[in-house]
Design brief:
Number of strands: 0
Protein name: TrbC/VirB2 family protein
Order of helices and strands: HHHHH
Keywords: Membrane, Transmembrane, Transmembrane helix
Radius of gyration: 28 Å
Structural class: mainly alpha
Number of helices: 5
Number of domains: 1
Shape: elongated
Helix content: over 70%
InterPro entries: TrbC/VirB2 (IPR007039)
Largest sheet: none
Distance between the termini: 66 Å
Strand content: under 5%
Transmembrane segments: 52-71, 78-99
Pfam family, one: TrbC
Length: 102
């Protein structure tokens, strides 16, 4: 008895369906503890957006402003520095808006 293409397709779909029903979660799923890395990265983010970051940004604006007034840098560089500071300062707000937390 010849095997038709439809019978072969139905058998393949049945085999794939049974295979998908028999799968189990990976053994490593949920076993990785990333809290030390998370703590380090959260500490860096808190440092850059906290009081130390604010003080560093203030000193950067003072330095770039003085350099611009003395002619060492052009206005475009001043704008780049200020835009970079604004992005770093607003990073947590931007990320929270994207992920919808807090």
């Amino acid at each position: 008895m010849p095997v038709s293409a439809l019978n072969l397709l139905l058998f393949a779909l049945l085999a794939v369906g049974l295979f998908m029903l028999m799968t189990e979660p990976a053994m490593a799923q949920g076993q990785i503890n990333l809290s030390p890395i998370t703590n380090i990265l959260t500490g860096i983010a808190d440092t850059l957006t906290g009081p130390l970051g604010r003080a560093m940004a203030t000193l950067a604006v003072i330095g770039i402003g003085a350099a611009w007034l003395m002619g060492y840098v052009d206005f475009r560089t001043v704008v780049y520095v200020v835009a970079g500071i604004a992005i770093v300062a607003g990073a947590s707000v931007i990320v929270n808006a994207m992920w919808g937390t807090q």
